[in-house]
Design a protein that fits this description.
The chain is mainly beta and 85 residues long. The protein has a single domain (3-80), classed as SH3 type barrels (Roll), CATH 2.30.30.350. The chain is 6% helix and 38% strand. It has one helix spanning 68-72; strands at 16-19, 23-24, 30-31, 36-45, 50-55, 59-63, 78-80. The strands form two sheets. Strands 6-5-4-1-7 form a five-stranded antiparallel beta sheet. Strands 2-3 form a two-stranded antiparallel ribbon. The protein starts with 15 loop residues before the first strand and ends in a 5-residue tail after the last strand.
Protein backbone atom coordinates (compact mmCIF):
# COMPACT_ATOMS: atom_id res chain seq x y z
CA UNK A 1 0.00 0.00 0.00
CA UNK A 2 1.43 3.36 -0.91
CA UNK A 3 1.11 6.31 1.40
CA UNK A 4 -1.20 8.11 -0.99
CA UNK A 5 -3.59 5.15 -1.19
CA UNK A 6 -4.61 5.21 2.48
CA UNK A 7 -8.37 4.77 2.40
CA UNK A 8 -10.90 4.00 5.10
CA UNK A 9 -11.66 0.67 3.37
CA UNK A 10 -8.09 -0.59 3.28
CA UNK A 11 -6.80 0.17 6.77
CA UNK A 12 -5.07 -2.91 8.17
CA UNK A 13 -5.69 -4.37 11.61
CA UNK A 14 -2.79 -3.97 14.04
CA UNK A 15 -0.89 -1.71 11.62
CA UNK A 16 0.20 1.69 12.78
CA UNK A 17 -0.64 4.93 10.99
CA UNK A 18 1.03 8.28 11.54
CA UNK A 19 -0.98 11.51 11.43
CA UNK A 20 0.40 13.61 8.57
CA UNK A 21 -1.35 16.87 9.47
CA UNK A 22 -3.51 18.11 12.32
CA UNK A 23 -7.26 17.56 12.06
CA UNK A 24 -10.35 17.19 14.24
CA UNK A 25 -12.99 14.49 14.01
CA UNK A 26 -16.77 14.90 14.21
CA UNK A 27 -16.68 15.42 17.99
CA UNK A 28 -13.71 17.81 17.75
CA UNK A 29 -11.27 15.24 19.12
CA UNK A 30 -7.85 16.44 18.02
CA UNK A 31 -5.40 14.38 15.99
CA UNK A 32 -1.93 15.93 15.87
CA UNK A 33 0.79 15.65 13.26
CA UNK A 34 3.25 12.90 14.16
CA UNK A 35 0.80 11.04 16.41
CA UNK A 36 1.01 7.26 16.01
CA UNK A 37 -2.30 5.33 15.91
CA UNK A 38 -2.84 1.56 15.76
CA UNK A 39 -5.88 0.46 13.75
CA UNK A 40 -8.17 -2.14 15.35
CA UNK A 41 -11.47 -2.06 13.42
CA UNK A 42 -14.00 0.19 11.73
CA UNK A 43 -17.77 0.53 11.82
CA UNK A 44 -20.16 2.27 9.44
CA UNK A 45 -23.65 3.61 10.21
CA UNK A 46 -25.23 4.08 6.77
CA UNK A 47 -28.29 6.00 8.00
CA UNK A 48 -26.03 8.70 9.46
CA UNK A 49 -23.06 8.33 7.10
CA UNK A 50 -20.96 7.79 10.20
CA UNK A 51 -17.59 6.08 10.20
CA UNK A 52 -15.98 5.00 13.46
CA UNK A 53 -12.35 3.96 13.47
CA UNK A 54 -11.42 2.10 16.63
CA UNK A 55 -7.75 2.67 17.36
CA UNK A 56 -5.81 1.30 20.32
CA UNK A 57 -4.95 4.83 21.42
CA UNK A 58 -8.35 6.52 20.86
CA UNK A 59 -11.42 6.45 18.64
CA UNK A 60 -11.86 8.51 15.48
CA UNK A 61 -15.39 9.56 14.47
CA UNK A 62 -16.09 10.85 10.96
CA UNK A 63 -19.42 11.86 9.45
CA UNK A 64 -19.75 12.03 5.66
CA UNK A 65 -21.46 15.42 5.51
CA UNK A 66 -19.23 17.10 8.10
CA UNK A 67 -15.85 15.41 7.54
CA UNK A 68 -15.94 14.81 3.78
CA UNK A 69 -12.55 16.51 3.40
CA UNK A 70 -10.90 13.92 5.66
CA UNK A 71 -12.85 10.95 4.31
CA UNK A 72 -12.21 11.89 0.69
CA UNK A 73 -8.46 12.33 1.18
CA UNK A 74 -7.60 10.16 4.16
CA UNK A 75 -4.10 9.64 2.78
CA UNK A 76 -3.45 13.33 3.32
CA UNK A 77 -4.17 12.89 7.04
CA UNK A 78 -2.94 9.37 7.82
CA UNK A 79 -0.12 7.29 6.38
CA UNK A 80 1.04 3.78 7.01
CA UNK A 81 3.91 4.03 9.48
CA UNK A 82 7.13 2.26 8.65
CA UNK A 83 7.32 1.06 12.24
CA UNK A 84 4.03 -0.91 12.17
CA UNK A 85 3.66 -3.75 14.63
Amino acid sequence: MSRSSTDIRNLRKDFQYRVRQDFADYYQNQFRQGELLTFVESHFLPYHGGHTLVLKEKTLYLQEEVNSNVLGALGEYLRLATDSI
